Amino acid sequence: MLIGAVETGCDFRVLVRQHQAMVFSIALHFLRDRATSEEVAQEVFFSLHRNLHQIESPAHAAAWLRKVAVQRAIDEGRRRSRRPQVALEDVAEPAAGGKPGDPLLSDLLRKLVATLPEAPRMVMVLRYQEDLEPAEIAAALEMPVATVKSHLQRSLAMLRGKLARRGIGESGWTG
Amino acid sequence: MDWLEDELRRALARQDPPDGFAERVLARSARGASGARRWLAAAAMVVVAAGAGGAWRQHQGNEAKQEVMLALRLASAPVHRIQSEVRGMTQ
Amino acid sequence: MKSLLVACLAALPLLAAPQQFHLNLDSVAAKASEHVDVSLNASTLQFAAKFLDASDPDEAKVKKLIAGIEGIYVRHFEFKSAGAWSQADLEPIRAQLRGPEWSKIVGVTSSEDGENAEVWLRTAGNKSVGVAIIATEPKEMTVVNIAGTIDLEALSELGGHFGVPKVKPPDKPQKEE
């Protein structure tokens, strides 16, 4: 017996509206290009539309969308086959001393994350955008948990180093 | 809470897609779905007209297609790995 | 009647697919916990191509890729534990690739992961007429022969995330949207 969208709670329109930010943001933070990220996000939802019959519940839909968004973003990144090379001199600096939530710092961090190699870059996106635990990231990326943890450690160390060279660090924060 | 991780959560917070994204997705999906329904209706007529032989051919074709996809999936993975390594070394 | 049958059987290799080396890996299959064996000749590929959906991005890429291929032969093995296979198991393949018509064009080894991948090209005159791929990991081995003309760059792109993943429903409640 076929189970319809109503029975599984998986109305396509609802799923699009509920998860569009997640799907778009995974692509955006990985690819750093809004137009391409929108195309990737659209492809992800078209793929969901074609495969809706496989989705068993809203939670399944969320996990499915996340995994497909990750894969399509990675594939698009490989097609473009370049990592953004950001010269730090070209990036506007956060205000000296910095405050938590400084938008220039956020912009700098996004750009630095985008310069990471593919695997650690997606690990960072899934950790800090989606708040996934290392085991969940490992499942999404089909890599060992130890590798995920290693990517997180090294990426954070790299970011700390680059920020420190710009005089940005914990001691600069207030509040 | 580590300050850098806090800032990363802020920097990588979800952003909404451009205005009208959902409408565009829904509109294109509906066009694709109606196109698929017309195609399926036409295909169903062909299958009925061709009788059981046509349905068997369709089944065989799908089986062959799956074999091709499987073969290429297995072949492409190592080639992709090599290319990624080579790109990593030259960047 | 018997002589006719024998003659037909003898003729089969000539009619069979143009595999460019023998994928004689029965000894490996005996040690593997899982084994995939795919052999697709030109007529099967042409037949399958008719059922590839040009409106599906992945299938469209595949359709274009297989246009120049005359045969694809894949042997893929998975093993329960590392150490189940050895380099000696691949010697029957490598011995054939040492022939003058084959040359190794690229290979990468990761000592950290124990992964190795190499691509060999078969030429006739100045023309590339086939590819051999050998890929190994501690618990996996894949040997491929593609006869005909193949765009390796396009093949590499397929090695991304090709098709739709199987995603099981999660066990625990998801984060609030």
Attribute tags:
heterotrimer, B: about 90 residues, mainly alpha, 3 helices, about 85% helix, flat, C: about 180 residues, six-stranded antiparallel β-sheet, about 30% helix
Put the structure in a nutshell.
With 175 residues, chain A is mostly helical. Chain A is built from eight helices and no strands. The longest helix of chain C is centred in the N-terminal third of the chain and has 14 residues, at 2-15.
Structure description:
- With about 180 residues, chain A is mostly helical.
- Helix content of chain A is about 65%, strand content about 0%.
- Chain A is built from 8 helices and no strands.
- Chain A has helices at about 5-10, 10-30, 35-50, 60-80, 105-115, 120-130, 135-140, 145-165.
- In chain A, helix 2 runs antiparallel to helix 3 and helix 3 (about 35-50) packs across helix 4 (about 60-80).
- The N and C termini of chain A lie far apart (about 60 Å).
- Mean pLDDT of chain A is about 80; it is low at about 80-90.
- Chain B has about 90 residues and is mainly alpha-helical.
- Chain B contains 3 helices and no strands.
- In chain B, helix 2 (about 20-50) crosses helix 3.
- The longest helix of chain B is centred in the C-terminal third of the chain and has 39 residues, at about 50-90.
- Chain C has about 180 residues and is α+β, with helices and mostly antiparallel strands.
- Helices cover about 30% and strands about 30% of the residues of chain C.
- A 6-stranded antiparallel β-sheet of chain C has the order 1-2-6-5-4-3.
- Classes of the chains: A mainly alpha (about 180), B mainly alpha (about 90), C alpha+beta (about 180).
- Chains in contact: A-B, A-C, B-C.
- The interface of A and B includes residues 28, 101, 106 and 163 of A.
